[in-house]
Amino acid sequence: MTAPSPLRRVGGSPRRSAGPALARTGLLAPGIVLLVLFAFLPLVALVITGFVNDRSQLTTENFAHVFSSGTYLRLLGRTLLLSFAVTVVAIALGWPAAWALARHVKPARRTMILGLVIIPYITSQLLLIYGFLTLIQAGGPISYVLTQLHLTGPQDSILYTPWANFLMLVYESMPTAVLVLYSAAESVSPSVLEAARTLGARPRYVFTHVIWPLSAPMVVVNFTLTFVQTVGAFAEPAVLGGPDGQMLGNTISTQISSGANDGFAVALSLVLLVTSLLVVGVVTALVSWTKRAQSGGPTNRLTAPPRPRTRARTPELTVARES
Known about the structure:
- Belongs to the binding-protein-dependent transport system permease family. CysTW subfamily.
- Residues 293-323 are annotated as: Disordered.
- Residues 76-283 form the ABC transmembrane type-1 domain.
- The chain crosses the membrane at residues 21-48, 80-101, 113-136, 163-185, 206-228, 264-287.
- 70% of the residues lie in helices and 0% in strands.
- It is globular, with a radius of gyration of 30 Å.
- It has helices at 14-50, 61-68, 70-103, 107-118, 125-136, 141-148, 162-187, 190-198, 203-231, 235-241, 248-258, 262-295.
- α3 packs across α9 (203-231) and α7 (162-187) packs across α9.
- By secondary structure, it is mainly α.
- It has a domain at 82-250: MetI-like (MetI-like fold, Orthogonal Bundle), CATH 1.10.3720.
């Protein structure tokens, strides 16, 4: 009898190849079901509600009301501008803190500081808002500092102004910025930075051509998380913003809680959702473009500084003279 040829088993049996596929499907199925039930179907229901009027007729009058009203367009512009400013400031303040935490703090202290950063996540949002209210009200610590700097009067405060809303949103966005950018700073290998310095790169060049391309994806993640969280804020402007600090989020909340016109509230929500996605898409494209511009191309690569050229000395020949 001859032994079976091993060539017959090349490619594997169909049962073995189907096993990993079934395992992947089984692992993905619960998440897909939850995503469809609690994200996709409610979004479809919202879209349908936005195109239905009080008489249960399909119409676009809700969206026409949004774009024909200067009040809601101003609220939309204020919401997008404030959210963009809050996100940029949070990233600008969180990046140095995250870099120092990843590079210049001992591991034991680093764990303690990260634990302190997480505290706002386990604290009630209303508790944070009313605690911040005591800081910025007349006679509070922040009002006292502003008075000493002659920025406000003794009885003045920034409470119930857009500045109160802005500072509160920045405060709430800082933990997200620090945690996300900390992972980006920690992922940059010290050997890469040392190699760049060895090749003669200046600190600014190291940041723009080494650190920024490596951390750009996490910056986009941070921008998306912070911007989406801020653009939908409704408790902060309702408590701290005052008449001039209202945002589209608390306007939508008022429309839904009053039950005046659910279709119009849904139309406002969809307009805010689409414009937010457009802003995130534009920022993502810009960050990707700057990343390619800084890291790609032969002129942007790190090269060693040129060494000074020296002429090779020819050995002098000495001829022994005969005496």
